[in-house]
Amino acid sequence: MSAIKDGRLPVELNGKEYHLLFSLNALDEMQDRFGGYDKLDKAFDSSNPQMIKDLRWLLTLVINEGMEEGKEPLTEQQVGRMIHLGNLQQIKDAIFAAFVYSTNGGEEKAAGEETEDTEEGNTKAVQE
Questions:
Q1: 59, 77, 95, 104: least surrounded by Cβ within 10 Å?
Q2: Whole-model pTM?
Q3: How far is CA 99 from CA 15, 71, 112, in A?
Q4: What is the pLDDT along the chain (128 residues), one digit of tens a residue?
Q5: Which of these, 82, 31, 32, lies nearest to 55 by C-alpha position?
């Protein structure tokens, strides 16, 4: 039997390591807020008038879900201070990466998926 991974993706924000986790709790709250976890890309679309609030809310949610038991949860205001225009795209990328990581059982990419790094340092799937 193989070990079950915890699905938390480590990220560094302002010099401190956090773990992002799309737990069932997070997916349930996303379903209530966005109408389903499959609408994550629409939440971060620039045409969404609530995009900034949704980003801050979701990052707070997945950071708090990834925290160890007994630690004090972060508020949206605390998380909002970690986000600025210079790292906004990196935050979005980290949330998407954490979603993939969590839904793939703690694997960096889907089984059989090939990836490559872009000029910007991001990872993208390679189409065969």
A1: 77
A2: 0.79
A3: 22, 22, 18
A4: 556 678 899 999 989 999 999 999 999 999 999 998 888 888 889 899 999 999 999 999 999 999 999 999 999 999 999 999 999 999 999 999 999 998 886 666 544 455 454 454 444 444 43
A5: 82
